[in-house]
Structures are given as C-alpha cells and as structure tokens.
Amino acid sequence: MRTPVFTGSCPALVTPFDENGTINYDAFGKLIDAQIEAGVDAVCVCGTTGESATMSIREHIAAVEFCVKRVDHRVKVIAGAGSNDTSAAVYLSQHAQDSGADALLHVTPYYNKASQTGLIKHYEYIADRTELPIILYNVPGRTGVSFTADTYKVLSANPKINGVKEASGNFSLLAHTRCLCPDDFYIWSGNDDQVVPMMSLGAKGVISVASNIIPEVMVKMSHLCLENDFAAASQLQIKYMDLIDALFCEVNPIPIKAAMNLMGMEAGSLRLPLCDISEKNLAVLRASMERMGLL
Prior knowledge:
Layout: E1 8-11, H1 25-37, E2 42-45, H2 57-71, E3 76-80, H3 86-99, E4 103-107, H4 116-127, E5 134-138, H5 140-143, H6 149-155, E6 161-166, H7 171-180, E7 186-189, H8 195-200, E8 205-208, H9 215-226, H10 230-239, H11 241-246, H12 254-262, H13 279-291
Helix pairs in contact: 1-2, 2-3, 3-4, 6-7, 9-10, 12-13
C-alpha cells in the first residue's frame, strides 16, 4: 500500500531572480521559510512556476540542492525533474535523489506529443532508474498531450508512481481515474480554482501557485477538505476566486511574480520568452490584491 507523498497544500515555488537574471538565493530561502512557517505540507521546486523550462541543467540541480538543504527535513521536498527527453528526465531525477529530495514531479513530455504507449514507456523507464516516488503531472494546455484514465490504470500498477498532479481541468477524466485506479494511486489538484471540487472527488490536496502569496489560505482550504468540511472549504474557494483568476490573467508565472514583487517579496523578473505583465493586467491584479487586503 503506497502512502501519499503529502496531503494538504504544497506551493509550486517561484524561483526568484536578481537584477542580473541569476537565482536570488537569499529571496528564495526567505520564500521557502515563509511557506513552511505558514504550515504548508510540502514544497515543490523547479516546476512550471519555478521557470524550470528556462533554467540550465546546472541551475536546476543547484536550485533543488539549495531547497533541500534550506528545508532541512521540515516538510517534504518534491523536485521537478520532467523533460521531453527521457534520458534528461532520468539525469535530473538521479541528481534530485542524490540531493535528498523526497519525491519527483514529472510533467508529460512536451512538444513530442507521445502516444499513450510512449507515455507508459517514458514513465516506466524513469521509475526503473530512481528510488524516489514519482508524481505524474498532467497539464495538456502546456504540453499538447494528456493522459487517459486507461493509461493511469497501467501506470498505477508501478509501485514507484505515487499519483498525479491533475491540471487538465477535466473532471470526467478525474472521475474515470478514480473509478479505474486503486485507492493508493493519489491525485492532487494542479489548479487553484478547482481545489475543493477536485478534493470532493478524492484528491489529496493541491500543488498551488497562489500559495506563494496566500499560503495560510491554501493550507486551510485543503485541510478543511481533508476533514470533510466541504461547506467551509467552498466558502474559502469562492472568496478567493477573484484573486485566483487575477493570478492567471496571463500565463503562469507572470502574474504571481508581479504579485510577489508588489508585496516586496523580491521575486524579480522573468526569463524570456516570458515577459513582465501588461499594465492593464497589472492594474487588475493590484485591485484584486487590495480587495483581499494583501496590499
């Protein structure tokens, strides 16, 4: 029987950059500490929100190592290690394991548009070459490919594969997955606007972008669901929908970095091809943050 890597709320950590475009480890350390002090159940480093797509292999490995050392066993560390090159995904996985990470996050191979058989072979190849539990990551809007429930069923038979971060927005897929897969194939919401409905269908928590600025809210929302108090959790979900929508008014992590900078959190700039938020959307974001008392 597998146990979930975590239950509750896990921030998808932003990677702060300094004025030279290099990782600002001082700000990164403060962000990690603040999240843990707010009660998060795990942290996820070098995911989409962390701009892993524009980090060099050396930077990626260094960021994971720094995060693991800074966390110092206070919570679980999930290291992003996904790639559209299976051998590169193995390389990142093995380095994350050597660094002391607790689990891996592996996005579906982007651009290649692998078949379902290709997805199965990709993940089984990685699982055979690491000792860490793997969380699959389904975000077809970014990668161009989605798992099917039948593919989840096949992969759920592998003891190394702990479950999936579901960011497809497809509730039918979620329901079919719960129907076909064993109870110890775990699901986490990858969408901040769908935490409560996904947890009502059995998800164990959320890997959250919004947690970078409202960690206590995401912890409380997910824990209320774990306690089966969906009425109270729904009230929180609804209350913060305006802010969550504003945090996705442009592609992630553009708005969350803007929000953090407005709050003095030194998230820094973005790496091209991502660029600063538009003035129009910055005004929308600022107004929403003011309504929520964040500014």
